[in-house]
């Protein structure tokens, strides 16, 4: 092997070591950023416990049922949702809701804290923030909320 080939061989070895070092350094930086980005990387995050006599409800909105139509499917994020909770079996035409909430795309998946009991939920999706132009409706009856528990329920909306 002549001097020129030996120099070229040494150059390739040094170049490969530099590339390996750069990958190692980058991986180390990413690992450390993830590690120090947590308050305590070895402790599981604490979940907030509801107050005494309360439980959580998480709602999932399924696709709107519109039947056959020439309109494109609705985007769930374009609505403002009005959620009204009544005691089970209440007359929704004459009784006021016990809990009434509005949800948008920013908070649609947030938990809902409810008193322990059995609830009927009525949901109306509106096109506007003033809640004047309804787009779809749905309900879910017999939601059982137990002390300190979190449940997930699904609501199907029917287009108007």
Main pleated sheet: 7 strands, mixed
Spatial strand sequence of the major β-sheet: 3-2-5-6-7-1-4
- Helix fraction? 10-25%
Q: Write down the Rg.
A: 28 Å
Number of helices: 1
| Total domain modules | 2
Quote the CATH topology of the largest domain: Immunoglobulin-like
Q: Please provide the count of β strands.
A: 7
Strand content: 35-45%
Shape: elongated
- CATH architecture classification name of the largest domain: Sandwich
Which CATH top level class of the largest domain fits? Mainly Beta
Query: What is the average per-residue confidence, as pLDDT, rounded to a whole number?
Result: 77
- Give helix and strand order, one letter per element, not per position: HEEEEEEE
Structural classification: alpha+beta
Low-confidence stretches: none
How far is the first residue's CA from the last residue's CA?
A: 84 Å
Tell me what you see in this structure.
- There is one protein chain.
- By secondary structure, the protein is of the alpha+beta class.
- It has two domains: 1-46; 54-159, Sandwich (Immunoglobulin-like), CATH 2.60.40.
- The protein is built from one helix and seven strands.
- It has one helix at residues 3-36; strands at 54-65, 80-87, 99-103, 112-115, 117-126, 134-145, 150-159.
- Strands 3-2-5-6-7-1-4 form a seven-stranded mixed sheet, with no helix packed on it.
- A hairpin with a 7-residue loop joins strand 5 and strand 6 (134-145).
- The termini are far apart.
- The model has no long low-confidence stretch (mean pLDDT 77).
Write the layout of secondary structure elements.
Elements: H1 3-36, E1 54-65, E2 80-87, E3 99-103, E4 112-115, E5 117-126, E6 134-145, E7 150-159
Parallel strand pairs: 1-7
Antiparallel strand pairs: 1-4, 2-3, 2-5, 5-6, 6-7
């Amino acid at each position: 092997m002549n001097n020129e080939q030996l120099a070229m061989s040494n150059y390739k070895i040094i170049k490969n070591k530099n590339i390996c070092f750069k990958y190692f350094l980058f991986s180390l930086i990413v690992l450390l950023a993830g590690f120090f980005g947590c308050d305590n990387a070895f402790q599981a995050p604490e979940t907030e416990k509801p107050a005494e006599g309360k439980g959580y409800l998480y709602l999932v909105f399924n696709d709107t049922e519109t039947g056959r139509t020439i309109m494109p499917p609705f985007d769930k994020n374009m609505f403002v949702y009005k959620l009204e909770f009544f005691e089970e079996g209440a007359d929704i035409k004459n009784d006021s809701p016990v809990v009434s909430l509005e949800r948008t795309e920013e908070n649609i998946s947030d938990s809902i804290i409810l008193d322990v009991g059995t609830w009927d939920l009525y949901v109306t999706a509106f096109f506007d923030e003033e809640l004047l132009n309804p787009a779809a409706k749905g309900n879910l009856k017999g939601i059982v909320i137990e002390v300190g528990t979190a449940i997930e329920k699904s609501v199907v909306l029917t287009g108007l």
